[in-house]
Amino acid sequence: MNILSENVRCQVSQDFSTLPLDIADHYLLIDIGANLTNRKFQRDLQSVLQRAEDVGVKKIIVTGTSINSSREALRLARLHPGN
């Protein structure tokens, strides 16, 4: 997928570590479907959030697929209001 702008053109790949370091100067990166309530993230949630920040993600929208996971998403949002 190509991201186009007046001054910037870059190729987006599945490996976001290949994005130009200055991409945050041109775009506000928001992860709009993070399933951070999944058990696989419980042990290293802080490092997941840190890696997202390190590559320029400014906001994360946590998803819920049930009442319980939506409550967990709300709990995470309250614990990490800046993310």
TrEMBL record:
One of its GO terms (cellular component) is cytosol. Keywords: Hydrolase. InterPro entries: Metal_Hydrolase, TatD-type_Hydrolase. SUPFAM superfamilies: Metallo-dependent hydrolases (SSF51556). It comes from the Eukaryota. GO terms for molecular function: single-stranded DNA 3'-5' DNA exonuclease activity. Belongs to the metallo-dependent hydrolases superfamily. TatD-type hydrolase family. This is Uncharacterized protein. It comes from Euroglyphus maynei (Mayne's house dust mite).
